[in-house]
Amino acid sequence: MKEPPENSSRLRYSLLAEASIDAAKGVSSDQIVNKSLDKAIEAIGLVTGSVRVVDDKGKLLFMHISGRNEFSEMMRQVEEKMLATLRDDYAVGNVFLTFEKDGHYSLFSYPLKVEGKVYGTISGITPGERSLSSEEDFIQAISAVLALVLSRGKTSEASSTSDIVKARSEAVVETAVTINHEVNNPLTAVLGNIQLLLLNADEYSPETRAKLKAVEESALKIKEVTQNLMRVIEPSVVEYTTGLKMVDLTKSRLGEAKEEEEQKPKVNNPEDEDKDIED
Fold first, then answer.
1. 37 and 167, same domain (yes or no)
2. Element (H, E) at 87
3. For residue 276, is it within any domain?
4. Cα–Cα distances in Å, from 235 out to 172, 181, 230, 245, 247?
5. What is the distance between the alpha carbons of residues 12 and 7, in angstroms, rounded to a whole number?
6. Which residues are bridge partners to 118 per DSSP?
7. Is residue 35 part of a domain?
8. pLDDT in 10s for each residue of the chain, 279 residues
9. Contact (CB, 8 A) for 65 and 75
10. How far is CA 217 from the centre of its chain?
């Protein structure tokens, strides 16, 4: 039977203090959780333990299992086959029980909860006849501290994802600025000349008019695409060809379009100019 170490009281105080101090320093929640679980296993005298972190809908975000390697798989199976059923099907909160599977074991599982909101669970296993219910006061304390830590919503995984999205968005905008700078001048010339030709559309055959109109529509489409690229807040990337990806503007999150006057080049009607001269 595994018992808590002689310096258990000091370890417990150190665990709670370090978790609180690290949270105040802005250390990511998952780092604090992992470190705290390792210390809790030592302080309580467990052979293995786990912390599950879930989102608002109860979906698993990540699970950290620590302790002696030979018991890690047991902890995983207990989490997936026993505790998951008790939580999901029976809405069980605190769990203290014993079970026999190749030996006698004591188990606890406690929710990480703040103001009624559950952020996950902490669980642990120890072999032998010892009941972990005697550790409930400390388990409740570490559960409360970890729940408060997780309520900040600051995980290194989330931060990493946020940084990637931000960097990708900035790269898209920088590319769009370059495209606008390099493309808009010649594009304006193309639109201007096409629209000038279309003023005399009656002089051309239906086939030529259709081709001129198609060129104008394509030029306007190019302009729309470059403007939308400038508005990308969160790009959605899809595979274009093998090994290459592209930004899907139809699925990307765009900012609001700025109110501005239509950028079509102004083309004067020669007849209006002649009329002005006569006046």
1. no
2. helix 84-90
3. no
4. 8, 21, 11, 12, 6
5. 9
6. 113
7. yes
8. 566 777 889 999 999 999 999 888 888 888 999 999 999 999 999 999 999 999 888 888 889 999 998 899 999 999 988 998 898 888 898 999 998 888 899 999 999 999 889 999 999 999 988 889 889 999 999 999 999 999 877 555 544 555 556 666 666 666 777 777 778 778 888 889 999 999 988 889 999 999 999 999 998 988 888 778 777 777 776 777 666 777 777 777 777 765 444 444 444 444 444 444 444
9. yes
10. 38
Q: Within its chain, how far is the Cα of 168 from the centroid? A: 14
10 Å CB burial of residue 126 (0-12, 13-18, 19+) is buried
Q: Pick the last residue of a domain from 130, 154, 178.
A: 154
Q: Are 223 and 187 in contact (CB under 8 A)?
A: yes
Query: What's phi and psi for 227, nearest 5 deg?
Result: -65, -40
Q: Quickly tell me which residue has 């109860």 as its tokens.
A: 58
Domain that holds residue 255: 163-269
Q: pTM of the entire structure?
A: 0.55
Residue identified by tokens 């699925």 is: 251
Tokens representing 190 are: 């193309």
Tokens of 183: 């493309």
Domains identified in the chain, total number: 2
Q: Say if residue 148 is in the same domain as residue 167.
A: no
